[in-house]
Every structure is written in C-alpha cells, then in structure tokens.
Amino acid sequence: MRDKKKAGNANLPALILLAALIMFWQMAAMGINAAYILPSPTQILVRLWELRGPLFTAHLPATMSVVAIGLLISVVLGLGLAILMDVSEVAEKALYPLIIASQTIPTTALAPLFVLWFGYSIWSKVLVTVLITFFPITITVFDGFKSVKTEMEELLFTFGADRRQIFFKLKIPAVLPCFFSAIKMAVPLSIIGAAIGEWLGAQSGLGYFSRRMMTQLDGAGVFAPILLLSVVAMAFVGVVSALEKRMIRWRND
C-alpha cells in the first residue's frame, strides 16, 4: 500500500504538467481557430473516435506487426553485437566505428531506397525500424558489459570459474539493468521507425494513414494516429518497466 501511494505521489507532477500542456494546447488551438493547422485535443479525440474502425482493425495491427518484427530483430542483433564486442577486442575495434557510422545516415534518405528494393512489403518498414532501434540496444548493453569490474572477474578466476561461468554468473546479472534501459529506449524508437517507414512508402499502417489525412488537410485526422502511437508506446514502456521490477528486485530495495 505504501509503495502504491509513493508511486502515485511520484506521478503527480507529471500529470499536473501534462494537464497544463493540454490546457495550453486547447487554448492555443481555440485562438488560431484553424483545425487543419492546429487541431485542439478535443477535436483530435473526437476524430480518433470517428476513425476507430479503420485505425484499430487495419492500420494499428499493420504498424504493430512492423514494430514486433523490427524490435525482435533489433534485440537479437543488438545483443549479438554487444556480446561479440565484449568477448573479442578485434571485433570491438572493427564493429564499433561501423555501428556509430550507421547512425549518421539520415533515415529519411534510406527509407525510399528500402521501398525501392523491397516495394511496399513489410520488410521495407522493418529495415527502417531495425536501423533506428538496434543502436541503443547494442551500445547500452556493451557499456553494461564494460562496467563490470575487472577485479570481480579476476576474483572469480582465482576461485576456479571459467569464462562461461563468469559470463552467466557475473556479467549477465550486472548487465540486466542496462538491457531493460535499452529496451525502454528502443520501444518508442521502434514505433517511430515503423511510422517513418509507413509515412514514406506503405499501403497500410498508422504512419501511412496520417500521411493520407495530411493530403486531405485533415489536421485532427493527422494527429489521431499519432496520439494512438504515443499511447501504445507508453503502454509498452510501462509493461517493460513492470517486468524490470519483477526481474531485478534488488534494484528496488
């Protein structure tokens, strides 16, 4: 009961700030009085309700499919690269600059190429998602491995532990907080990546739907799928945070 009360008090400032921002947005939209430029929050909610049929039955599942596949590939790729760079100094020197360089290329420049190569299939959007998402997982987990103190490894070596035992008994538990932090960063980025891919070339999905509403000068229709994406991202991050608290109990003590 005390923990729930403490969590509620911790969320109170965020809720107050959110309410203040929504009120300011509502007043600014009423002052402009041009829904195609700046729709009000109430107009967006009304439009979201009006469009609930196509949004929830067709476009949301399409976007979530891209997010799920892209995030799964990013987790496997990111963890694989982090582990490889941790166990091999040669691999670290070869891969680390390339991983950094991969983030210097504008995604909006590559997305049309992916569409050209793969058409409007799901894989063009998945590649955009992976390109954006694998980076924080790789770097954060790799930094977590590097943060494990050498003295602890040497101590386990003196006790007769081999590299496999050190990896699973020392490094994996030590890197778990970094892994969950990386996933909490990657989830919103995966949704952004899916939306960007759909915006630039798709036949379904929330990003595609938002772009279609823009061509019709429907400001509230543009924001409705964006609001839905934001809610989904926050829900996913909440699920990851709950899993983190269950798996890393010592961090909450």
UniProtKB/TrEMBL annotation:
Keywords carried by this UniProt record: Cell membrane, Membrane, Transmembrane, Transmembrane helix, Transport
Species, as recorded: Hominiventricola aquisgranensis
Subcellular location: Cell membrane
Protein name, per record: ABC transporter permease
InterPro entries assigned: MetI-like, MetI-like_sf
Membrane-traversing stretches: 12-38, 58-83, 95-120, 126-145, 174-200, 220-243
Entries under SUPFAM superfamilies matching the protein: MetI-like (SSF161098)
Origin superkingdom: Bacteria
Family listed: Belongs to the binding-protein-dependent transport system permease family.
Main location: membrane
Topological type in the membrane: Multi-pass membrane protein
Domain ABC transmembrane type-1: 60-244
